[in-house]
Specification:
single chain; alpha/beta; Udp-n-acetylmuramoylalanyl-d-glutamate--2,6- Diaminopimelate Ligase, Chain: A, domain 1; UDP N-Acetylglucosamine Acyltransferase, domain 1; 3 domains; 11-stranded mixed sheet; 10-stranded parallel sheet; 39 strands; about 30% strand
Length: about 350
């Protein structure tokens, strides 16, 4: 069903139009207009917000938001609600709708200061920003956009409809699939960290492999993904990588994984599909992490993990074991007192 904005030039949309767009149930005034969106605490009467976690339900009473997307079971008299199955997803749909006609500030065409080798191949609709360098033999797919100050090395391949933000480096011979987003400061294809001890010195091991980034991957800012020693470092289709992540040589990450900020994966470790590494996790090299495994924040992983297993701690243990051990650690002072008391009693009994 087509939704028409009440005032497209002002990007305003009514509550009834939102309900139609997200296939939700409207409770309240369908004529309320919103022209923006914000968090539930910050929103004002002209903005849309959402509530997805029921523990924050009390915030409904105080929010000033004009329209609120909520789970199906929620009621709040006096508020204009739209009840949906997934408020966060519905909120995203409305935001995308409101932004679809927003000004597009991405580079257009080829900037005159860009340096592009005659031996590079740029498909139709490619945009290249100021001072970006594209070396000989590089291939840029149709509709891809490179912002200012990017570098694409010799023989690198960038797929269709990619978005490469400023100051990204794609080193020589790396391959990036279609619809990939790479944020500023990220380096793909730097040398793996490999050295041999020789006569008390560190001799560099040549890193002659490459990196393959599959379709629909998004990589955050200041991420480093090292090229393989011989073969490929691989980031699987649909995987999302947060800022400040280090991925070492010959690592293989499966499809639709999530790797959160400040995580580090050492060389030759392999992640299955749908693996989640929470923030500040560290994995040693040559491990196997099974499909659907979850590593909780600040965990240090030194052993392989089975499919579907959840681990936590440093060193990481199965979640229930780790939580139980942590609970005991929190009671160590009480245990010390108990041991002292027991020791005193034993000494008294021995004296008798």
């Amino acid at each position: 069903m087509t939704v028409t904005r009440s005032n497209p030039s002002a990007a305003r949309i009514s509550a009834s139009e939102i309900a139609q767009l997200v296939k939700g149930e409207l409770i309240g005034d369908g004529d309320v207009l919103v022209s923006g969106f914000s968090g539930i605490k910050e929103a004002d009467k002209n903005e849309l917000t959402f509530l997805s976690n029921l523990k924050y339900e009390p915030l409904l009473l105080d929010t000033r938001a004009g329209v609120i997307l909520v789970p199906r079971q929620i009621l709040c008299p006096g508020k204009t609600l739209i009840r949906v199955d997934n408020p966060s997803l519905s909120f995203t749909q409305v935001v995308n709708f409101l932004l679809k006609d927003a000004p597009d500030h991405r580079p257009k065409g080829i900037h005159p200061t860009a340096v592009i080798s005659p031996g590079a191949k740029l498909a139709r609709g490619v945009a290249v920003g100021a001072h970006t360098v594209i070396e000989d033999g590089a291939v840029i797919g149709e509709g891809s956009v490179l912002y200012a100050n990017c570098y694409v090395g010799h023989g690198a391949h960038l797929g269709k409809n990619c978005l490469i933000y400023p100051q990204v480096v794609l080193r020589e011979k790396v391959a990036v699939g279609d619809r990939v987003i790479i944020h500023s400061g990220t380096v793909i294809g730097s040398d793996g960290f490999g050295y041999l001890p020789v006569d008390g010195k560190h001799m560099k091991i040549p890193q002659v492999g490459t990196v393959v980034i599959e379709d629909d991957v998004e990589i955050g800012a200041n991420v480093t993904i090292d090229r393989a020693r011989f073969d490929k470092t691989i980031i699987g289709e649909g995987t999302k990588i947060d800022n400040l992540v280090q991925i070492a040589h010959n690592v293989i990450i499966g499809k639709y994984c999530l790797v959160v900020a400040q995580s580090g994966i050492a060389g030759s470790t392999k992640l299955g599909d749908h693996v989640i590494l929470a923030a500040q996790t560290g994995l040693v090299g040559h491990l196997e992490i099974g499909d659907g495994a979850v590593v909780a924040a600040q965990s240090g992983v030194s052993k392989s993990i089975k499919a579907g297993e959840q681990v936590f701690g440093s060193p990481a243990h199965p979640m229930q074991t780790a939580l139980r051990n942590n609970a005991h650690i929190q009671r160590l002072d009480k245990y010390v007192e108990m041991i002292k008391d027991l020791k005193k009693r034993i000494e008294e009994l021995e004296k008798k």
